[in-house]
Amino acid sequence: MLYRVSAAGGVAESVTTLDRSHHEKAHWNPYVLPDGRHFVYTSWNGSAPPKLEIFVGSLDSKEKRHLLSGVLTMSYAPGYLFYVREGGALMAQPFDANNLRLTQEPFLIGEQKGYTSFYGKASASENGVLAYRSDDNPMQLVWFDRSGKELGSVTPPGMYHNPRLSPDGKSVAVARLDPQTVLSSIWLFDLSRGSSSRLTFAGHDYSPVWSPDGQHIVFRSDREGQINLCAIEIAICVHRLSQHPARCR
To answer: Of 87, 130, 174, 222, which has the fewest Cβ atoms less than 10 A away?
Structure first.
């Protein structure tokens, strides 16, 4: 679900509700519209690769308006929605933020190949500049110094997302995509030893975050039928080198 909270802090209040009759598991990528009261967002029903629906929601009620189905990702910029269709076509469609509706037919911006069509989300600025990833080449995590000189690679080629350095700077936790299942798991790369360990083995796990003491990693997962935050103890996983259940809530 999506939540609202005062800029001054306080209790978070939900502004969307998962529709179990339509098997909704998560609401993602909210973009607040110019009126400050409405927002566009995507809904996921657990499909892999994710096929999302786009809705307009409100901060003042739980009412929502359906805009599009069957997209892989979505971005908003004043006057337009940008989204990727299955197959990799990056589209733009005029959007009337005052009346909360699409006004014209979509048109092609570019082609995105392979899994980057989902994970390589486009980003549009308010001055009309759009940035997006268009190829499906394997990724690597690479060290650079402050002058921009490449120092060496951290990982073998693959599909990686949301890398996070440990508090002591000695390890990297990252979500790694399996191109066969289009699901991701959390991996740990030891920077001093050059070794790696797979930490999670169930569901779609991503967005790892370290605890301040470096003993646990918290991540998002759909392993219990909806998106929850899960935590896993690093020492147990690495020393046993075996699957260890995560705690979710």
So the answer is: 87
CATH architecture, range 3-131? 6 Propeller (2.120)
Q: For residue 7, which amino acid is it?
A: A
Tokens of 48: 């892999």
Q: Is the pLDDT of residue 171 over 90?
A: yes
Q: Is the pTM of this model over 0.85?
A: no
pLDDT digits (tens, 9 = 90+) for 111-121: 766 544 445 46
Residues 160 and 175: beta-carbon distance below 8 Å: yes
- Which one-letter amino acid corresponds to residue 209? V
Same fold, 3-131 and 142-248: yes
Q: How do residues 76-97 score in pLDDT, each as one tens digit?
A: 988 999 988 877 788 899 999 9
CB distance 78 to 92 below 8 Å: no
Q: Concatenated DSSP letters for 22-83?
A: GT--EEEEEEE-TTSSEEEEEEE-S-SS--EEEEEEESS-S-EEEEEEEEEEEEEETTEEEE
Q: 243 vs 233, which has greater pLDDT?
A: 233
Dist CA 219 CA 31 (whole Å): 23
Per-residue pLDDT of 68-79, as tens digits, reads: 998 888 889 889
Strands 216-221 and 205-210: antiparallel
Domain range summary for the chain, segments of one domain joined by +: 3-131, 142-248
Contacts of 22-26 with C-beta under 8 Å, sequence gap 24+, read: 25/222, 25/225, 25/226, 25/227, 26/222, 26/226, 26/227
